[in-house]
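Morning!

This is the sequence you dropped in the shared folder:
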Amino acid sequence: MINGETGHRTVHTLVKSQDERYIDRSERSYTYAPVKGTDYSLALVLPVYSLHYIHTTIGDTITQAKFSESLQEDKFEEYGYTLIAPR
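The structure's back. Tokens below.
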């Protein structure tokens, strides 16, 4: 990454819990590449569990969203935002 290389590496590391009371062993997947025309590189760091997902069609997601109460403005205080990101 420092020398303008492109690559991928998995690293074992320690991660703090959100409440900062516990530390757990975890794996992180690092993917990196240089940014063209600059001296910079960009890295994307993901936990290993982000590599697995449930495959669905966009039609199913949209159909679910139509009937979801959490997408209605008057329910915002109760549910917060709902973001739908198809893969």
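Headline: The helical segments are 58-66, 76-79.

More detail when I'm at my desk.
O.
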